[in-house]
Amino acid sequence: MSKYLISIVGPTAIGKTALSIKLATHFNTEIVSADSRQFFKEMQIGTAAPTADELSAAKHHFIHHKSIEDNYNVGAFEVDAITKLSELYQTHDVVIMVGGSGLYVDAVTKGLDEFPNVKPEIREQLNTALETKGLITLQEQLKELDLKTYNTIAIENPHRVIRALEVCIGSGKPYSSFLNKDKKQRQFKTISIGLTADREIIYNRINSRVDIMVKEGLLEEAKALIPKQHLNALNTVGYKELFNYFNGEWTLDFAISEIKKNTRRFAKRQLTWFKKNKDTFWFDYQTNVKEIIATIERNIKS
What we know:
Layout: E1 4-9, H1 16-27, E2 31-33, H2 52-57, E3 60-61, H3 74-88, E4 94-98, H4 102-109, H5 120-133, H6 135-145, H7 147-152, H8 158-171, E5 189-196, H9 199-216, H10 218-224, H11 240-246, H12 252-274, E6 281-284, H13 289-301
Parallel strand pairs: 1-4, 1-5, 2-3, 2-4, 5-6
Helix pairs in contact: 3-4, 5-6, 5-8, 6-8, 9-12, 11-12
Enzyme class: transferase
Subunit structure: Monomer.
Cofactor: Mg(2+)
C-alpha cells in the first residue's frame, strides 16, 4: 500500500491547523478537514476555521462548502471524503487530514458502523416526545434500553440520544450492539498523529481562544444567525450559549463563561475518544515539527 493519510487529531485549540499546514508544505500535498462544524460557511469565527492566510498556505477541502440549512451528516461526509481522497491520490502519495470531530475522522479512516433502516415515524415520535416531555425523559428511556450507550454518548446532545433510541426501538436491539463490527477496507494506510498538553494548558488555551473569538466578532456572527437558531448545525458550543444571551435568558458574561466551560468539556471528550486509538503517535503541542515528520517518514519507509 503506497498511499498514506496523515490524520492529525487532538483537543480543540491545541494547534492542529498549524501543524497540518506545516506537514502539507513538507509533503507538498493538500488538506482534508474532518471538523464537522467548519463545513458551514455561516460559522467561521465560532468554529475557529482556518484564516484566509492559512487557507492560502495549503489547499484545503471541506471548509465552508456547505450551508447550515443543508442536510449534511457523517454518512454523506464519508462518501464525499473518500471520493476526494481517491482524486488526490492520483497525484499525491500523502494527504493530510485534520479535525477534532472523532466520528468524522473514524468515518474516513475506518468506515461507519452499519445500522438497520428505521421507520421515519419513530424519529418523528421521539422528536415530539423531546418537545413535549423534555430530554430527561428520553435519556431515561435510553438508560433502560441500552445502558452501555447511555454511559458513552454525549448524553446532553438530543440528536445523539434520539439517534440511539430510534435504532433501539426500530430494531429491538441495543444501539451499542451494532457498533465496532468489521470495518471497511481502505486503499490507503493511516498514520495518526495526536497533539496534547497538560490539562491546565489545554484549558488555558481554550479560554484564550474564546476571548479572541469574542474580540474578532463572535457576537455579531451569532446575532446574525438568531433567525436560524433552531437548525441542528447551530446546536454548537459558542452559538447556543450566545442565543441564550440574545434571548434574554443569560447575561453576556455568563454566556461567555459557559462557552469556555462547555468547550473545556468538549476537549475532555475529544481526548477520551482519540485515546481509544492505540496506534496514534502522541506529541506535546510544542514538539518541533521535524520530530513529527521523522516519525511519519519512518512509518512510511517501514
